[in-house]
Design goal:
The protein has 312 residues and is of the alpha/beta class. The chain folds into 2 domains: 219 residues, Metal-dependent hydrolases (TIM Barrel); 75 residues. Strands 1, 2, 3, 4, 5, 6, 7 and 8 form an 8-stranded mixed beta sheet that branches. β3 and β4 form a beta hairpin. α4 packs across α5 and α5 packs across α6. The N terminus is likely disordered. This is PHP domain-containing protein. InterPro entries: PHP_dom, PHP_domain, Pol/His_phosphatase_N, Pol/histidinol_Pase-like. One of its GO terms (molecular function) is 5'-3' RNA exonuclease activity. It comes from Blautia faecicola.
Length: 312
């Protein structure tokens, strides 16, 4: 049984899913760190999309800053005979060598522009005028091409009132006009990414499980396959900030974490300055549960615990 219950005696927050201008966030890494420290968090992880903002853990004041990445992956749903994009957060408390992930990242850039062009074409067919040049101009703020940059232009030109509106009604996973990125971008398979995270000494965490247009039965199947690939050290974003006000989703995810042996994680998936950091008061305890399990697994892998047992 995993310890994911709220502990009223421990009020140290951690936010293990944050974005910066290195990908599609709106604050620089230094700004995210400064704002998180000011907000009183005990630990954060910068998890930009498909890259590492930094590779070694840091201590800023009393706050831990953990290297991480949000990996886009391809997940095959056999019943539908179709693939969908699933995100996996990788945390690396002891640091990470980006060279370990060269093959994982190798084919991502190739299809990105084609994906953006497909979205723009669909918008044009609906009478919504957004050009590639406008998206690229917005991209200069972060250097990242993607849907958030398209959303910026939709808002600027009055087609959407805010980011949520742009995603809900035009380009998001749950909008009527959603185009799966996996049709254009060759993301590595989910299981392969999870195994590489573990092989590189990291903690794989299934990101926002309700974000993939899956039924709860399909989510559970995803969780089981995720756990199988990860082994003993695996997490899931149970206390994802947007789920905290939805008792049904929260209850389901807590049950899934306990049923399938995943550690619960607290996260906000913060992109913009107007988004709050994780409000979960025992987020640090949840992180430490994962970190302890990781270090124990790494020691066992090296044979340290086995040797100690033999001496006894």
């Amino acid at each position: 049984m995993r310890r994911d219950k709220m502990n009223t005696n421990e009020k140290k927050r951690a936010d293990l899913h944050l974005h910066s201008t290195k990908s599609d966030g709106y604050n620089t890494p230094d700004e995210v760190i400064r704002l998180a420290e000011k907000a009183g968090l005990a630990a954060i992880a910068l998890t930009d999309h498909n890259l590492f903002s930094f590779t070694k853990p840091q201590k800023v004041g009393k706050m831990m800053v953990i290297p991480g990445c949000e990996f886009s992956t391809t997940y095959w749903i056999a019943e539908r005979k179709d693939a969908t994009e699933v995100h996996v957060v990788g945390l690396f408390p002891d640091g990470v060598d980006p060279n370990d992930f060269k093959e994982i990242f190798a084919n991502i850039e190739e299809g990105k522009q084609q994906y953006v062009l497909a979205i723009l074409q669909q918008l044009a067919e609906r009478g919504i005028d957004v050009s590639l040049e406008e998206v690229e101009a917005s991209q200069k703020l972060t250097g990242h091409t993607g849907r958030h940059k398209i959303a910026d232009v939709l808002i600027k030109k009055g087609y959407a009132k805010d980011m949520d509106d742009a995603f809900d009604h035009h380009i998001g996973n749950f909008s009527p006009y959603y185009i799966p990125a996996t049709r254009f971008i060759k993301y590595a398979p989910t299981a392969a990414v999870v195994r590489q995270i573990r092989s590189s000494g990291g903690i794989p965490i299934l990101a926002h499980p309700y974000g993939y247009m899956m039924s709860e039965a399909e989510i559970e199947d995803l969780i089981m396959k995720f756990k199988s690939a990860a082994g003993t050290v695996a997490g899931m974003e149970v206390y994802y900030e947007r789920y905290l006000k939805n008792p049904e989703k929260l209850s389901f995810l807590k049950h899934m974490a306990e049923e399938h042996g995943l550690f619960a994680s607290a996260s906000s998936d913060r992109h913009r300055e107007d988004q709050p950091f994780s409000s979960v008061e025992n987020g640090m305890e949840l992180y430490q549960n994962m970190e302890k399990a990781l270090h124990k697994a790494n020691l066992m892998k090296k044979g340290v615990l086995i040797k100690k047992t033999e001496k006894k």
